[in-house]
């Protein structure tokens, strides 16, 4: 394990090279004045070169979340005030059907982290998903009973942690360090082609740059914010969202409206808004900020 600074405290992001992790490492320092933000990676050699050049002094190398003693050792050495778990097997990952691995990372790891964070006096922020709900109804609140329809959703539900730690239910869109299977990367890779846009598939997530802002300016400054909270935008159809992305990025293909498929996993964030005052910006503003951050982080 290597880290540029031996200072303790601050924020530690687990999974710093992932889709959310790299956004947090980039953006949290912009919202947490004077607070050191570090991020763990399994191997510096496998980290995107642009990202490594920008933030290498703040990366902690050689941390494998499946090696629990190594994670506990990092926490004991750095003694962060906050740990953000940005590690997870995502729904689109080829390995999501590996029930052992998915259970270890999505369901068991958060609870091990909660235990180890409590031992060093750190607060854990766990990221959950709208996929804990089936999508049959939409407008889900924290009081609704989760009803996941697949193993991924069940694994993430099992990984939700309670007070004194915090779980944020949300969904994310944004750039990856390497081209992958995210909605944005898939869409941009189809420039000049025809794709389907589902007008009855409803989305209420946030761009990763906005979730990082929420984390740094709303969640982390409130140590009393514990338990499960839903963080969401105004619901938008996948069709309308792709149209906004196309306009913002200068995408030149054709989006064919598809009305047959129906799915509404939209989350209600009214409880979070009542507690914190946070209301998400409009989707045109969110997509614009996502593109600006995309260019800043990746140069593409």
Automatic annotation (TrEMBL):
Its EC number is 1.1.1.133. InterPro entries: dTDP_dehydrorham_reduct, NAD(P)-bd_dom_sf, RmlD-like-bd. It is an enzyme of class 1 (oxidoreductase). Pfam families: RmlD_sub_bind. The keyword Oxidoreductase applies. Residues 11-250 form the RmlD-like substrate binding domain. Pathway: Carbohydrate biosynthesis; dTDP-L-rhamnose biosynthesis. GO terms for cellular component: cytosol. One of its GO terms (biological process) is dTDP-rhamnose biosynthetic process. The keyword Acetylation does not apply. Keywords: NADP, Oxidoreductase. One of its GO terms (molecular function) is dTDP-4-dehydrorhamnose reductase activity. Belongs to the dTDP-4-dehydrorhamnose reductase family. Catalyzes the reduction of dTDP-6-deoxy-L-lyxo-4-hexulose to yield dTDP-L-rhamnose. This is dTDP-4-dehydrorhamnose reductase. The lineage of its organism: Bacteria, Bacillati, Actinomycetota, Actinomycetes, Propionibacteriales.
